[in-house]
């Protein structure tokens, strides 16, 4: 963790290391200020500039997690709260280069389809997406400087699940940010993804097909406040 | 547990990683007594050396049940995960895992249909025998996971309710898997008497640290075995001779998650991961698991060929993938992609076959043992040589000193 704080908008630097946010649930507005100078990655789409609760972010994944756990219930269960449009929502993500996320880690594909299947069975609204070259990365210089491009992020409003995915994938960076709408949260830069065929493919089965991830790309811009 | 932990066991026995198959929904807490078909008398002293495939059913009864049951130092486990004692225990990953396990992805997955019985009836001849053995070994391995996790869930309840609940939920999965496999056995007019097994089997003791290494590997290798079989059969449906394989894709996601949990357990106890001893143990466990699987599977090529797989290629694929996965947590792993590693495994297979052949001769036990000595020595030296091959440093990036320089 670097000790240099380069804060972007909305992030207050306070000074106590101990006050890692515990609860930045969308509903809990009053947030302890994180201060740990590693909050240079804070990002908010909050254009209204709700001043008082600066939402802190730490680059250290463990702290993200801590808060994430408490946030689950509401994030996870709230279906379509009309207030969501107004309120910023927190999005958690893991990110790595596209090759790793979409080509090499084939179990990743299985996990995503398994979850989608479950959501279908339980009529649960999808709350996780794959974003290729996400725009929000611009606000995480500490991540982007260590990231091969194109990058792919797995984004979800379910923090603990992202913690789980970090545990599973390991070779990924994890963070969170706030955004007002789904559309903003998942905005991406158009990118072409290409993978070279593996030199030697010895598995007794073919690779998952190129493009399997399209199912998980964000819905078109029309669909915003659906979360 | 997808694969039984076969460690330092006599490799000529029926011990090892068995592929798994599944059970009807809600297998949790199933009652043993409901299996009322022909009971196989599960003898605990079943140590026949040779898994003679062509032998009659009686021979199977004696040999099959060798996958072992495990027990551990529960007091030490309590200490390790006592949140009072270990204030800094990182609970985040555990809580995330708990949510994952509570989600219960496979709640409604293990439902049988009439295809099972029909397929079983069509399976005749040697393949039928092999299938029964396969189901039985798998069921026993899953059941052994159930018992261990269940007990851990019970014992850790007070000191760490989150970890305890995860263990209980994992035992739910294992019970389902074991039950589903046992139902599969009933298609062949067999049933394992699991209640009897629980009491009659000998339990092998492992210290917690070793339980972590062993179960982690066992779950992850189980995942890779199942997903490989599933994807292979999806591509080559003509070998789909029994419907249980169709359940593998979802099934093995359970195994993979179980493995993740052990990964988190080890991360919570970095002393098991960060010194030179840990590296030696990590390599030792990798080697034990890979070698045991390889030797066992090479004794059962008929099964793998029966479903259209080349046994050695299948095993090497599973070993390489498991090793890559394991490198995300173990501080050192083996260089299994070095062709020399496979050459060593193949030599072990040859020696092991000679060993088994000695067991089959008519010699008196003393002569047999004398004949075995040079072979055992040769095998031991191959194993040692494989162990001493230059390892690959590995581990979670959460611990890596070079992490800040990593590019993702």
Automatic annotation (TrEMBL), chain A:
Protein known as: Ycf54
Matches recorded under InterPro entries: Ycf54 (IPR019616), Ycf54-like_sf (IPR038409)
Protein family: Belongs to the ycf54 family.
Domain of life: Eukaryota
Species in which this protein is naturally found: Rhamnella rubrinervis
Pfam families to which the protein is assigned, alphabetical: Ycf54 (PF10674)
TrEMBL record, chain B:
BP GO annotations: chlorophyll biosynthetic process; photosynthesis
Catalytic activity from the UniProt record: Mg-protoporphyrin IX 13-monomethyl ester + 3 NADPH + 3 O2 + 2 H(+) = 3,8-divinyl protochlorophyllide a + 3 NADP(+) + 5 H2O
Enzyme class at the top of the EC tree: oxidoreductase
Family matches, as InterPro entries: AcsF, Ferritin-like_SF, Rr_diiron-bd_dom
Cofactor annotation: Fe cation
Gene Ontology annotations for the cellular component aspect, listed alphabetically: chloroplast thylakoid membrane
EC number(s) given by UniProt: 1.14.13.81
Pfam families listed in its UniProt record: Rubrerythrin (PF02915)
Pathway: Porphyrin-containing compound metabolism; chlorophyll biosynthesis
Any one GO MF annotation of this record: magnesium-protoporphyrin IX monomethyl ester (oxidative) cyclase activity
NCBIfam families per UniProt: AcsF, PRK13654.1
Protein name, entry field: magnesium-protoporphyrin IX monomethyl ester (oxidative) cyclase
High-level lineage: Eukaryota, Viridiplantae, Streptophyta, Embryophyta, Tracheophyta
């Amino acid at each position: 963790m670097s000790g240099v704080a380069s804060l972007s908008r909305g992030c207050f630097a306070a000074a106590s290391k101990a006050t890692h946010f515990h609860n930045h649930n969308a509903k809990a507005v009053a947030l302890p200020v994180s201060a740990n100078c590693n909050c240079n990655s804070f990002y908010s789409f909050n254009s209204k500039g709700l001043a008082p609760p600066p939402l802190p972010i730490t680059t250290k994944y463990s702290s993200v997690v801590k808060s994430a756990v408490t946030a689950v219930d509401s994030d996870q269960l709230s279906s379509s709260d009309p207030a969501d449009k107004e309120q910023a929502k927190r999005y958690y993500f893991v990110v790595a280069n596209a090759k790793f996320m979409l080509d090499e880690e084939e179990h990743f594909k299985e996990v995503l389809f398994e979850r989608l299947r479950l959501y279908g069975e339980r009529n649960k609204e999808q709350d996780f997406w794959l974003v290729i070259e996400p725009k929000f990365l611009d606000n995480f210089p500490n991540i982007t400087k260590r990231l091969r491009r194109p990058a792919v992020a797995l984004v979800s409003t379910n923090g603990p699940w992202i913690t789980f995915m970090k545990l599973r994938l390991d070779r990924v960076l994890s963070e969170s940010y706030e955004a007002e709408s789904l559309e903003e949260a998942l905005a991406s830069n158009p990118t072409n993804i290409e993978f070279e065929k593996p030199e030697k493919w010895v598995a007794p089965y073919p690779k998952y097909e190129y493009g399997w991830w399209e199912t998980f790309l964000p819905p078109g811009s029309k669909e915003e406040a659906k979360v | 547990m997808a694969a039984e932990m076969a460690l330092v066991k006599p490799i000529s026995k029926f011990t090892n990683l068995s592929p798994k198959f599944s059970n009807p929904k809600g297998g949790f807490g199933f009652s043993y007594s409901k299996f009322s078909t022909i009971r196989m008398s599960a003898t605990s002293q079943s140590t026949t050396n040779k898994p003679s495939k062509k032998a009659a059913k009686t021979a199977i009864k004696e040999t099959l049940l060798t996958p072992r049951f495990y027990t551990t130092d529960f007091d030490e486990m309590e200490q390790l995960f006592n949140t009072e004692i270990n204030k800094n225990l990182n609970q985040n990953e555990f809580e995330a895992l708990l949510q994952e396990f509570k989600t219960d992805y496979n709640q409604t997955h293990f439902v049988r249909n009439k295809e099972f019985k029909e397929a079983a009836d069509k399976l005749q001849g040697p393949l039928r025998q092999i299938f029964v053995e396969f189901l039985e070994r798998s069921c026993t391995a899953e059941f052994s996971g159930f018992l261990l996790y269940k007990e851990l869930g019970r014992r850790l309840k007070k000191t760490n309710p989150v970890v305890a609940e995860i263990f209980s939920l994992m035992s739910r999965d294992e019970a389902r898997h074991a039950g589903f496999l046992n139902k599969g056995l009933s298609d062949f007019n067999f049933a394992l008497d699991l209640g009897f097994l629980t009491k009659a089997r000998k339990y092998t003791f492992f210290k917690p640290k070793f339980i972590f290494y062993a179960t982690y590997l066992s779950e992850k290798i189980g995942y890779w075995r199942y997903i490989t079989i599933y994807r292979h059969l999806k591509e080559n449906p003509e070998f789909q001779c029994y419907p249980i394989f169709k359940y593998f894709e979802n099934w093995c996601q359970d195994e993979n998650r179980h493995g993740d949990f052990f990964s988190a357990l080890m991360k919570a106890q970095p002393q098991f991961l960060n010194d030179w001893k840990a590296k030696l143990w990590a390599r030792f466990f990798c080697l034990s698991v890979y070698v045991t699987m390889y030797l066992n599977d090479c004794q059962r090529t008929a099964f793998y060929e029966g479903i259209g797989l080349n046994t050695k290629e299948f095993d090497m694929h599973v070993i390489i993938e498991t090793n890559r996965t394991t490198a995300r947590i173990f501080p050192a792993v083996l260089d299994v992609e070095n062709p020399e590693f496979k050459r060593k495994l193949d030599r072990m297979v040859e020696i092991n076959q000679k060993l088994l052949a000695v067991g089959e001769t008519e010699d008196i036990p003393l002569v047999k043992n004398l004949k075995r000595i040079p072979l055992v020595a040769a095998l031991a030296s191959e194993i040692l040589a494989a162990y001493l091959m230059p390892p690959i440093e590995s581990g979670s990036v959460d611990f890596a000193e070079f992490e800040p320089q990593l590019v993702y």
